[in-house]
Amino acid sequence: QVQLVESGGGLVQPGGSLRLSCAASGRFFRITSMGWYRQAPGKQRELVAAIESGGSTNYADSVKGRFTISRDNAKNTIYLQMNSLKPEDTAVYYCNAWATGTNPTGPYWGQGTQVTVSS
Questions:
Q1: Which residues contact 1 (CB under 8 A, 6 or more apart)?
Q2: Per-residue pLDDT tens for 35-93?
């Protein structure tokens, strides 16, 4: 099993920045893919950014050039640096992970952290 703990959400003005963190713990051999999803009120959960253990990344078109996902494999932690935030980025952000050496292998989800972009 994998437990994910997120931190770093909050209220920020348009154009501002926030940094989210997500740490994985539990009984597993290796964390493979990790990522961030978000869900705004009345909308479906959508992928924001993902990163593989080797470092390859994938971003939603809406955040390319503004958000950066990074990973510390030694700490089983990922980060999401969010710059130039817009009101439409307001959502609950969820961390996601897949692992080996555990059953099930995923997907695992964090509890979510609220990001609100408003003046």
A1: 26, 27, 28, 102, 108
A2: 999 999 999 999 999 999 889 999 999 999 999 999 999 999 999 999 999 999 999 99
Structure tokens at 42: 């009345």
Cβ atoms of 23 and 5 within 8 Å: the answer is yes
The residues pairing with 34 across neighbouring beta strands, listed in sequence order, are: 51, 97
Q: In sequence order, which residues have a C-beta less than 8 Å from that of residue 7 and are 6 or more positions away? A: 20, 21, 22, 113
Query: Which residue's structure tokens are 């154009």?
Result: 15
Residues in CB range of 98: below 8 A, 6 or more apart: 31, 32, 33, 34, 105, 106, 107, 108
SS3 (DSSP) at 89: helix
